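Please predict the structure of the following assembly.
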Amino acid sequence: MLAKVNGTALIGMEPYRVRVEVDVIMGIPAFEIVGLPDAGVRESRVRVKSAIRNSQFEFPNRRIHVNLAPADIRKVGPSFDLPLALAILEATGQLSPSRPAGFIAAGELSLDGRVREVTWALSVAIGASRAGSPFVLVPEGNAQEAALVSGVQVFGVSSLREAVGFLTGRLDIGPRTVDVSSALAEDGSGCPDLAEVRGQEAAKRALEVAAAGGHNLLLIGPPGSGKTMLARRMPGIMPPMTLSEALEVTRIHSIAGLIPAGGSLVTRRPFRDPHSSTSAVGLTGGGAPLPRPGDVSLAHCGALYMDELPLFARNALESLRGPLEDRKVTVVRSMVPVTFPSRFSLVASMNPCPCGFLGDPQNECRCSAGDIQRYRGRLSGPLLDRIDMQVEVPRLTRAQLQAKATGESSAAVRRRVADARQVQDRRFDDSPTHCNSEMTHSEVEGFCSTGAEGERFLGLAVERLGLSARSYHRVLRVARTVADMAGSTSIEVEHLAEAVQYRCLERSPLA
Amino acid sequence: MGRRPVRSMSWARLVRPAEKAELSAVCSLPGITPRQVRELLTRFGSAAEAWSAVTRGNSSGVADRERMSQWASWSADVEPRERIAGFQRRGVELLALGEPGYPRLLSELDYPPLLLYHRGTLVDDTLPCVALVGSRKATPYGLEASKHLAADLACAGVCVVSGAAYGVDSAAHLGALESRGRTMAVLGCGPDVAYPRSHARLLRDIVSEGAVLSEYPPGTPPLKHHFPARNRIIAGLAVGVVVVEAAEGSGALITADFALAADREVFAVPGEIFSPNSRGSNDLIRNGAAPATSAADILDALGLVSAGPERPAADVSLQPPLPLTGPGEEALLDAVTAGFSEAGDISQRAGMPLHRAIAGLSRLEVAGLVRRGPGGGYRATRQGSARK
């Protein structure tokens, strides 16, 4: 007898509906699965057989053929256990569903018949919603997550018996609901507060400008000057996520298996902090058989902190250029392109030189000129180009360290940042650009004109401070943000002057 | 002065300008040391004889058998005159010790270079030379001091000599070039090799306004042990050596030692007593070097009258600064000259919001009144302090 139950496969971010077809026929007992199952899916056979038996059902002692259609997409992971078991039960007459057909099921089975959580449950629900399925059957631990999606009913089950009971109408389970808007109203208090940072007023200002305009920021300073502390506070001064941002972030984290059982919406902007030994694939994503999002995508809508930037492998640094430019990562697997979004704020840190003491008023730098050139040379021109702002974070004096921390709180800064973002929302209303740092060349021409005095100032700055011509546009974008923060529609010399100070790497340390 | 005249040194007498091609070839034998060169000259009596003997595998005991056969096979492929002609085609000329045009002061060293390879024109002996040396990792203060001293010295008709390295050296060459004065660079590699690579353009400019010279033939790479040796040439060319900024153990102090040994004047530019970057140069002053706070200090001590046309020691690198926009920037400049260097402290002292202070300091920087160090600290420049 033939039976079909729907499951879901995932390619990158996109769910694909998979028909689990089961045919139980006469013949030498066998249990075959076709349709490009990977090793984990083939292992389903053991789990399904035991789970069925241990749920007081009968496992057919006949020939079982399973096809996972469409047959040319790889099927990966244990989420097909549940639909497969249900299809076998239906094919052997042990299950006659009274609920509407066309539902989608997902879940891993334990040998004792319990249903275990899967990753990417959110994507399963999204796929079901798009396909117009009547409902989704997911593990209990994934129900909160799947219920975030509107347009489809979500039911959570904790065992195979429960699933069968529900489908035959004998068991009554209510659809899961989640109050999304209250979840989102969380005030971001989990993020460390800017007020805890002592001194470093100039660096804090740079952090605020970076958050306001979505600019990437490089912190330069000796070890222990507080660069990491500052970077960790970046998500806390960014405005709260919108619902669609939160859903997108939750989806990506779900795919990466980062949503814990029972977890639901991710409400806090992500902060990723990869170690400098991370490979290019770890940073940008990829891997086989199923491409997974890298740190740049896990930091989507949040901040990516790269401590000791020159210590990252060269190819890892080069791999950043694409995501920084396009704000997405595309990986090709078996000729199918998979895209992960990657719109993040980059905060990077580095020492001024390998020993860290160049420019320190009290300590002598022990590096040779060659050491310094090589260290700085690890950051290629094109990569540095995409980092709009650079600011020094000097060592604190003893007096500063011992003084009380009396700076502004993150909440106060966040309000100003949100105001500046609103100006940008209005400006870029019907354009794919979200913020000043994403402006295209023509948008820079349109929104960042500076007037004669501004031109003259910029020309002098290029000449006297050694600014490169290609950092010219970077300065204009940052100046636009500074002007927005000052509530000014035009860009004045004052705004340009501040923006110019954030190009400190252009001045050579050694003449 | 009481120096032994060079000619009395037996081996130096054996350097005949007519045989400089052979001498160059001998000096370039693989692995040969300067002492071995002198011994060959002494044993064979002339460069030409020495060359001829080496080609035949005879070194009269100067080298062991393995080295001798290495020299013999190397020299088999070399025709000395053709080799020199090749250099000349690439723009490199050769001067031998004792030849007219060889700088007289340099020849007074205990061990002057036997051969000088150069691009451009060496200054003649009527023009006094002053060497400016210092740290490769100079602070903005050191760079500014070097550039201004060089510019003023060049205006006064002095030729500025240095090593074209990062930091003080290149700042000195730039200062002299911008004054349209003469400058010479002594390299630790062949005069056609740009080291550091990023100074290729600077070296080309120096060749047009002066000379780039070296004791090593074209193509020689910048090996570490070449640099102390070339520092003696820098000292040897000059009547006085100015150490602009040097940390303890800096190579510039070696140049100062060579200068002392050759009876040349040694000056040092005073630096902040807390700055580790000036510890070496300040120590020199403590040990008797003359402090140099301006080009006038140096010219007076050397008894040099301005040899060129009278020109104000102007800030040649600056055009008229942007006008200050008012009291805000005055207050900022006051704060900086009072010693506050961090933006937060400056804004507090000047009584204005931080972002205004940052913008104002930026304008002051573009106007040339303050400068910014690699740690982000602000300092007043010479003009900035002069406004007080």
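Chain A touches chain B through 45 residues (CB under 8 Å). The first strand of chain A starts at residue 2 and ends at 11.
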